[in-house]
Amino acid sequence: MIVDFHTHIFSSDLIKQRNRYIDDKNYSFLYSDEKAKLIDHNIMLRAMDDSGIDHVVIMGFPWENEKYCQEQNQYFKDVFVLSKGRIIPFASVPLSINTNIEEWVKGIKDLGLFGIGEIAFYSDGMNKTNSAILRKIFESAQIYSLPVCLHLNEPVGHDYPGKYEPDLNVIYSILKDFPELTVVLAHWGGGILFYEMMPEVREAFRNVYYDIAASPFLYSNDIYDVAIKILGSEKILFGSDYPLIRFERYLTDIEKNVKDEKHRKNIIGENARRILKL
Q1: 235 CB neighbour count, 10 Å cutoff
Q2: Edge-to-edge strand order for the sheet containing 183-185?
Q3: CB–CB of 111/149 below 8 Å?
């Protein structure tokens, strides 16, 4: 089974009127440029068939606007049915201090969606307000037994749209307070995985996973060997960020750089199957 744990789609209505949503701050950071690619579930399904992908997880966008968030979550519920369960939806909570977060998380559970995320703070970074929002999302996700995906980028290196100061110390302080919550840190966790060599971090992160989305833009392929040595292959998830990068780019890199068959199977699908209870 091949499961891509990190992809993105938008409704055809949004794609046709993409500029109508530009008043949402996070959306404008990534999609004000007309070159930024948007696809719907039909294109995703065709791409999956062409590449032999069994399932994908679609990540919700980190909207601040409640209306846009609600529209997306309903679309995702419909897509799960339309795809006969091949497209597995996570969902969004409006990232505003005024949001009744627990009510939204309950609504996500009631819709039958599979998790929360991708949470990201593109415009403001991990400031005090956003830290409080994230902590509340974790609290509510734990109550309703939903996994959470958090966008984390590395605090050093080149800039790109949506890159923000992640403040890994703050992230650690939040994660260690929720050791039983399943959390997926996107993009190799912004490098926080290297601190799992510290015993106290390893213990606090016992239910933390790392997806490899955007890896070709960030790290050399040595990251696979290093990450497996630090984490074990059981904590690594294939994620493409599709349509940012094609599925095959990752699968080829994994085939070349992960020699052990069990490790490969864990990364490309087994770990995701276990988290999602497929």
Answers
A1: 23
A2: 3-7, 55-58, 87-91, 115-119, 148-150, 183-185, 208-211, 236-237
A3: no
